[in-house]
Specification:
Blueprint lengths: L11 E5 L3 H5 L1 H6 L2 E5 L5 H8 L9 E2 L5 E3 L3 H11 L3 E10 L6 E3 L2 E3 L5 E3 L15 E2 L8 E2 L18 H11 L3 E12 L11 H19 L5 H6 L1 H14 L6 H12 L2 H14 L14 H8 L20 H15 L9 E2 L10 H7 L3 E2 L7 E2 L3 H11 L7 H22 L6 H12 L2 H9 L2 H17 L6 H17 L4 H17 L3 H9 L2 H16 L23 H8 L10 H5 L12 H9 L6 H21 L3 E5 L2 E4 L3 H22 L3 H18 L1 H5 L9 E2 L7 H6 L7 E7 L5 E7 L10 H4 L10 H8 L6 H7 L2 E6 L8 H16 L3 E7 L2 E6 L11 H25 L3 H8 L15 E2 L2 H6 L9 E2 L4 E4 L44 E4 L4 H7 L1
Parallel strand pairs: 1-2, 5-11, 18-20
Antiparallel strand pairs: 3-10, 4-11, 5-6, 5-10, 7-8, 9-11, 12-17, 13-14, 15-16, 18-19, 20-22, 21-22, 23-24, 25-26
Helix pairs in contact: 6-9, 6-10, 8-9, 8-35, 12-15, 12-16, 13-14, 14-19, 15-16, 15-18, 16-27, 16-28, 17-18, 17-27, 18-19, 18-27, 19-22, 19-35, 20-21, 20-26, 22-35, 25-27, 25-28, 26-27
């Protein structure tokens, strides 16, 4: 202040905290006219109000804070501008950064139609481009000079919580007939953490800016519109929460609701603000309109019109690199393998069952409530039912046909998933195709297809996408949102993978924290949240019933089909990558003795994977080997755990899901070796060809199983119940059928199915893993039906809602004891009053009740409240994850500006696509779509982890999200540390050296 060429008439100092040191300082005492001590939390507006009574009459007011350092001629130029502009009520300087005076912090502020504050020059390099501007709607309050005649009317509003103070003063000045004049030649250095600046913490900043916007909206609105704005606060908070999630700003959701609730109950503050405006206003609101920022202006201001300032680290090249051709070839192979499946309306066999007839019934099976099996069985649905609901909704006219399409498209979808997963490991198009083929021909995947295991097929199709998203989940909220949904889907299809996935998640979290990437760790913390929400009701149910291991049971229909056992032979098959003892069909071709030698065909891939631990990118190689070991350990443990039962027989957990996870690690590790360790192109091509051809040969028996009648797949049935019941239960009517199945050991199995069939989505692990009765006990009634006891059996069954009784035959070979019991059951029911035989079908003898059965008992009030709570929490979290995963222009830019490869070592060469002339002149035997290393000058080609090369998507409407800055990407954070893959050294040709320099 002493260095000012035009010294101030008086300085009033307001100390927010202890003022003893200031009072004891002779230098300060001689410079100020008074010192006011205030509380430590006093806002800037309140501090100005404390000092206002001490200001000399008629004097202009210059507002400064301890973080503002005016340049020596600042006050002189502010005063000169004020004197030259009689209409100016406020003069604002150019604020520059304390550490870099070439960077503009603020020079004028405006607002959109809905009141969102917009900085006019923040963050720009000061090249004098704005020095001709002299009119603005508002300005930053720091360094602002207010004319003495209006100083009492233009006081900072404490209700704004420290945000938009200068903008509000400018609006009020304009309504009072004055204006805000900018003085770019007057410069004031400011720091971002002062008392007059916005909070530096993201949450507090979002709260302050949103609260100020809502308060100004209520203060500026016409009186008749205030109630409407007040009623819209909470709906707008919900809408903006959704846009915040889409915009990858989840940290703004809680401040959004806090600001809305706070603004709703500040009636006194709103009344005072409106009174200040009313007392000073002499102009209409139309005088402000020319200075507002329109949506198109805002878009131009925040969007530079380019795709990625830093350039693309690598192009995807799905079509030009041959990925599309590989998927198309896989489709041809799939059609040749499953020739007649498309003509089947329903896919059956193995663990396959029909789906519900309507989409609504599918989603009902996925919700907490009455289960589709048993009587009065109320509880959580298996998360797998939600996956089936999504799948069935893709073909709403006939949901069961979606399984047919899944089987036909399984091979091309597997190639597609494997290809995209490989983009996280290599830029070479040939190796990406290799990965897609290897993934699609995995023995565990082909076995699941041939044996009819829908959960195993879905797990294998989802895992590469989980790897693709989870590998970069620390980089962006979009990837974290997608990874969280895929994590939940994979865990839903294979709960036995949950421990391994959680272990890998903890490892990833530790690696991220070790790199001091706090925001990346926060994103990773979100990944398991949707899965936890889906599994929490089931976990609590099993805990209450004392069997927590039952949570790991395979969902869907429990089928005691072929799989590796817990003995030495079974574990040997697992160790070599085969989930069944027949070695993916080779036992029927070579015999049981020679079949184990088929594992030699997988040896080349295994050797390539092991070599990744000593490759240049050894960190990524070892991490992928850990993934492989976790999957293999899961498979080894699964075959020894039997928590599900099929007709009273214990069934071990399917080990194929663990082998699919292991296949991810093995394939990825092999790619690391091929991409980095084998530098000679011919050696790389030969190694990949040997490994790929070996796996293709290994897949031949499985691909031929459908045509050699070795597959479990069948045409239907469309219903597991007789056609008469299916017709009566059209559109998934809740008609109950009691199924009595005499067992070969002389026992009697009872089951109650609701609707026209037992369906895949109606299966539930709370029944398949039960070791005691669940729901109403019908065992005594079922036995009495077949006994000589004289009672009104039809009436008792009708009270439970059961309308039909089916005496079924046990699957497979029927023993004499089972046949005798079935004959006795038919004879007993024929003699029972109230039962009418509806006919003998291929599914058994069907009886119907003469009298109409009672409707199925609905949920109680308490159960309905529980169902609403569970469904609401799950839907909110899943919706949040879905909105986070929606790609935006900003997220796509940020992704393109980063290397797709994760874990790249700095010393690795950068793989660049070859130009057409290079391909014509080269004798490199590698595929034309692949990349090569060029001799030449070493250049750095990469971006730092702050993602500064990405540009956020502009906000066309002030209600679509939080304020954005063109220098702050919506996906990445400057606070994150640099990844190992953030910057890479590459070799580029001499012709491209200049282009590379310009790009950097």
């Amino acid at each position: 202040m002493r260095s000012q060429t035009t010294p101030p008439a008086a300085i009033t100092l307001v100390m927010c905290g202890d003022a003893a040191s200031a009072r004891e300082s002779g230098a300060i005492a001689g410079a100020v006219e008074g010192i006011i001590q205030a509380r430590g939390g006093t806002s800037f507006a309140d501090a100005v109000e404390l000092a206002r009574p001490r200001i000399l009459e008629g004097s202009a007011v210059w507002l400064l804070a301890h973080d503002t350092a005016p340049h020596e001629r600042a006050l002189e130029r502010l005063v000169g501008t004020l004197e030259r502009s009689p209409s100016a009520a406020i003069v604002a300087p150019k604020l520059v950064h304390t550490d870099n005076e070439r960077e503009i912090v603020s020079l004028g502020v405006s607002m959109t139609t809905l009141g969102r504050a917009v900085e006019l020059a923040a963050g720009e390099l000061d090249q004098g481009q704005h020095d001709g501007s002299d009119d603005a709607l508002g300005a930053d309050i720091r360094g602002m000079l207010i004319r003495g005649e209006v100083r009492d009317a233009l006081r900072p509003d404490p209700a704004l919580a420290g945000a938009d103070l200068g903008l509000d003063l400018g609006v009020r000045a304009r309504l009072g007939g004055g204006r805000v004049v900018l003085a770019p030649s007057a410069r004031v250095s400011v720091s971002p953490d002062g008392p007059a600046a916005l909070p530096t913490a993201r949450g507090r900043r979002a709260f302050a800016t949103r609260l100020a916007q809502l308060h100004r909206r209520l203060a500026y609105a016409p009186a008749i519109a205030v109630p409407l704005h007040w009623l819209s606060l909470l709906p707008l908070a919900l809408w903006r929460s959704m846009t915040d999630l889409i915009g990858k700003r989840p940290e703004a959701v809680a401040p959004e609701w806090a600001a809305a609730v706070t603004a709703m109950f500040r009636f006194g503050a709103i009344a005072r603000s409106r009174a200040r405006i009313r007392s000073f206003r002499t102009s209409s609101w139309s005088s402000i309109a020319p200075l507002r920022v329109s949506s198109s202006d805002l878009r131009r201001r925040l969007d530079d019109g380019h795709g990625s300032e830093g350039g693309s680290a690598s192009e995807l090249r799905f079509f030009s690199g041959g990925g599309a051709w590989a998927v198309l070839a896989a489709l041809v192979v799939s059609l040749a393998t499953f020739t007649t499946i498309l003509a089947w309306p329903v896919l059956g066999g193995g663990a396959l069952l029909p789906l519900r007839e309507t989409v609504g019934a599918l989603w009902n099976d996925a919700a907490w409530g009455l289960r589709g099996l048993g009587v009065d069985v109320v509880g959580p649905a298996d998360p797998f039912a939600g996956v089936l609901a999504v799948l069935g909704s893709l073909w709403p006219g006939a949901p069961s046909f979606s399984l047919v399409l899944l089987w036909v498209l399984a091979l091309p979808l597997a190639v597609l998933g494997g290809w995209f997963a490989a983009t996280r490991v290599t830029d070479r198009a040939g190796l990406r195709i290799f990965a897609g083929i290897v993934w699609a021909l995995a023995p565990t995947f082909l076995t699941a297809l041939v044996d009819g295991r829908p959960a195993g097929v879905l797990v294998h199709l989802l895992l590469p996408w989980l790897f693709h998203a989870a590998a970069v989940a620390h980089r962006s909220w979009g990837a974290a949102g997608a990874a969280s949904l895929l994590f939940a889907a994979v865990a839903a299809c294979a709960p036995s993978l949950a421990p391994a996935l959680l272990l890998l998640w903890v490892v990833a979290l530790g690696i991220t924290l070790a790199g001091a990437r706090i925001r990346g760790a926060v994103r990773l913390l979100w990944v398991p949240v949707p899965a936890v929400a889906l599994f929490a009701p089931l976990v609590l149910w099993q805990l209450r019933h004392g069997d927590i291991l039952a949570v790991l049971a395979d969902p869907g229909s429990v089928w005691n089909g072929p799989q590796a056992t817990a003995d030495a032979a079974g574990r040997l098959a697992l160790a070599t990558g085969f989930p069944t003892g027949d070695m993916a069909g080779w036992a029927s071709w070579l015999g049981v003795e020679l079949a184990p030698w088929v594992a030699v065909l997988l040896a080349p891939l295994a050797l390539l994977a092991l070599a990744s631990s000593v490759a240049p990118r050894w960190r990524a190689g070892i991490t992928l080997l850990v993934v492989a070991l976790s999957g293999l350990a899961t498979a080894f443990l699964a075959v020894g755990v039997a928590v599900s039962f099929a007709q009273g027989e214990p069934v071990a957990i399917w080990p194929g899901s663990g082998l699919s996870l292991a296949w991810v690690g093995v394939t990825g590790a092999a790619l690391v070796t091929l991409d980095t360790a084998l530098s000679m192109p011919r050696v790389r091509v030969l190694s990949a060809a040997v490994a790929g051809l070996s796996i293709a040969v290994c897949a031949v028996p499985a691909l031929a199983a459908f045509h050699s009648d070795s597959s479990e797949l069948t045409d239907g049935p469309a219903s597991t119940l007789p056609a008469y019941v299916a017709a009566q239960a059209g559109a998934d009517r809740q008609i109950g059928t009691l199924v009595l199945t005499p067992q070969n050991d002389g026992g009697l199995a009872t089951e109650v199915a609701w609707g026209g069939s037992e369906t895949l989505s109606a299966q539930t692990t709370i029944l398949s893993t039960a070791t005691e009765l669940r729901g109403a006990d019908l065992t005594t009634l079922a036995v009495d039906l077949l006994s000589a006891r004289d009672f009104d059996a039809a009436d008792e069954l009708g009270m439970t809602g059961i309308s039909y009784v089916l005496v079924a035959q046990v699957s497979g070979e029927e023993s004499d004891r089972a046949r005798s019991l079935r004959t006795a059951a038919v004879t007993s029911l024929d003699q029972r009053a109230g039962f009418v035989q509806a006919g003998s079908t291929d599914r058994g003898v069907l009886y119907r009740l003469e009298a109409d059965a009672s409707p199925r008992a609905p949920l109680s009030s308490a159960e309905q409240a529980t169902a609403r709570l569970v469904i609401t929490i799950q839907l909110v979290l899943l919706l949040a994850a879905l909105l986070l995963s929606v790609p935006t222009r900003a997220s796509r830019r940020a992704a393109r500006a980063r290397s797709r490869i994760v874990g790249r070592a700095p010393e690795e060469p950068l793989v660049l696509p070859r130009h057409p002339e290079d391909r014509e002149d080269s004798d490199d035997p590698e595929d034309p779509g692949t990349s090569r290393e060029h001799d030449g000058v070493s250049a750095v080609a990469g971006t730092t982890d702050d993602g500064s090369s990405g540009t956020p998507e502009p906000d066309a409407s002030s209600e679509s999200g939080s304020p954005s800055s063109p220098h702050q990407d919506a996906e990445t954070d400057p606070g994150d540390a640099v990844d190992h893959d953030a910057g890479t050294k590459g070799h580029v040709g001499p012709d491209s050296e200049q282009d590379e320099r310009e790009r950097r």
